[in-house]
Amino acid sequence: METQLDPMKDDLPLMANTSYMLVKHYVLDLDVDFKSKVIEGSIVLFFENGSQCMRTSSAGGKECCQSQFDETCKMGASEPCHIPMIDVNTCSSKMKYNDFAVSGKEEEATSDENSNHSNNEHASGISSSKDCCDTENHGNKDFLLVLDCCDLSVLKVEEVDVAAVSGIEKFTRSAKLTGVSKKLENLRNQIVHELVNLPSDHWKEQLYYFTHCSQAPGCGELLFSTGTWSLEIRKLGIQTPADFPHAIRIWYKTKPEGRSVTWTTDQSGRPCVYTMGSPINNRAFFPCQEPPVALSTWQASVRTAAGFVVLMSGENSAEPVQLQKDILSWYCYVSMPMPAATFTIAVGCWQEVKQQSFKQTAAIETNTEFSLPSSQTDFRWHEEICGHVEYPCRFQNPAARLQAVIPYRVFAPWCLMEICEEYLLQLIPQCLSAAYATLGTHPFSRLDVLIVPSNFSSLGMASPHIIFLSQSVLTGGSHLCGTRLCHEIAHAWFGLAIGARDWTEEWISEGFATFLEDIFWARAQQLSHDEIKGQQELKALLRWRRLRDEVQNSEEELQVLRPKKESTGELSESGASVVKYGLKAEKIFMQVHYLKGYFLLRSLARTIGEVSYLASLRKFVMKFHGQLVLSQDFLSMLLEDIPKQKGSGLTVESIFQNWLDTSGIPK
């Protein structure tokens, strides 16, 4: 059954039709303008055929194209496809972009005919198949690429001529091209196919060609339309995803009121902008595919005025390059495919917090004892084959497997540098070592920690290679700062390296991080067994009271950890779906996914025994890192490891019934 998307309700729509085309790599090229509060530039997207396209094309049919149009029209996702006679190169940023825009001489002949829609059609906002599809070719409809997009001014969309890149012919050797008219189009798509499928040990070469392909000239503008939640793109006469351009460039601007980034001032009164973990994720920052299944790599060049520091969730520590007297450029990349929602940026007058070298050395030496005991190291040395898509994986890197403390930096506004040096810098190596002792290999190669502006609505937020911390954790001494740091570090494994296949299952991220923060923090403090037990019992009591109060004062539907129940993880035919209650205002302030998830994991640990339980967590990390999971993936593996629990009635189904699929708190 097709998912019906209604953006007027509390569910967050994920519109991208990932079943037909899947983004494999993004190249962002952006300028940050604090005067106008706008981020402007281009993004190049490199695609691979999606699973649905591969299934239908193998049968020789065009059903995937047809069903996508029927679904899009049924959802009412797009505005009427009016094609005005304009030149998008000269249009102002104030122009309305919710109509199809096109330029180029080869398409002018069709513009007049397709622009004849009545005012009634525009007013209704409901698209018929005539509105959103081209029916010139004997009734066949053009394929429509749908991206997640919101609060953006899209200026221009074009196909990228990757065949024009010097040296790119090496990717055409296996091309099997037929016909004359489509030869060049097929060649371009073949190049992209070969490029995105390079082996992981060629990742540097792949990045090199992604860079040069992203700078290649355009070879024809594409029609586009923006709706409330989406950007829809088509090419006249192209009726299947396989024939649609697999490298496209989108020129766009963010809007000052866009909900993915926030423009504000830091605690020292200086301007800054950052991605603050919005419920709508990054779709108001760049057009993308939001569904978690769209795992992709990215690279980004960001230019800003001198004096600003750009931090991103890239695996390299970006160093500024001076382009002009007052302009700096910052470049980052990632080689591990992850959802677009994990891309993070913060631009401000941040200062790096440093301390004398002997202090840092002493801190790390103090924590060398957190290396795994010999009886627990075996799980890290098994030469297991990773279950994820191919990428340069740290779990297969002998040097990374021995790294208890990854390189780290701390950034903050000038006025908070002293307190950061006093508390935060001392705690990071301790917490990293404790995490390594518990779970093993760090999934990411480095860590930046940024104290974000005071308008940040949470205590912390973890992204690959970077953690945002609230200034509030600094005033609570080492305990509050340390526990929050441990919570965010835990997300490197649960939430980032292992992600939820369905975002309604937040507990997979937050429940695990809440449970593990206690384990990490106890080891970081080097507490005795009795001290650990006392501290954890006290925290459990406080959490119980908070959860009880929340359950008594919230809607029952928001207390369910698996709100879609047996439909969890299901997608529509096109790949579109919804995040249930993703836009509900009350949900933002609730802790049920943290606390109820924590108590489920605590109950399992007590039933199984903490030593066996932590061993199962390590096994789960080894098996599922770099992948997306559902609740049953963890629960099934856990119960398989402990056969004796089956006799006690502890099953996946009973856990669903008692914990995940119902409101309230289990007895």
Structural account:
By secondary structure, the protein is of the alpha+beta class. The chain has two domains: 12-53 and 140-346, tricorn interacting facor f3 domain (Immunoglobulin-like), CATH 2.60.40; 350-356 and 388-660, Neutral Protease Domain 2 (Neutral Protease, domain 2). It is 32% helix and 20% strand. The chain contains 18 helices and 24 strands. An eight-stranded mixed sheet has the order 6-5-9-3-2-12-15-14, sandwiched between helices. A hairpin with a 4-residue loop joins strand 2 and strand 3 (38-49). Helix 11 (417-439) crosses helix 12 (477-490), helix 15 crosses helix 16 and helix 16 packs across helix 17. The radius of gyration is 26 Å and the shape is globular. Mean pLDDT is 83; it is low at 1-8, 57-138, 177-181 and 357-382.
Strand pairing plus helix content: what structural class? alpha+beta
Low-confidence stretches: 1-8, 57-138, 177-181, 357-382
Distance between the termini: 36 Å
Overall geometry comes to globular
Total DSSP E strands = 24
Q: Please indicate the percent range of residues in DSSP E strands (runs of 2 or more).
A: 15-25%
- CATH T-level topology of the largest domain: Neutral Protease, domain 2
Count up the helices.
18
Strand order, main sheet: write it out: 6-5-9-3-2-12-15-14
- Assigned CATH architecture of the largest domain: Orthogonal Bundle
CATH homologous superfamily descriptor of the largest domain: Neutral Protease Domain 2
Radius of gyration: 26 Å
Mean pLDDT: 83
Count of spatially separate domains: 2
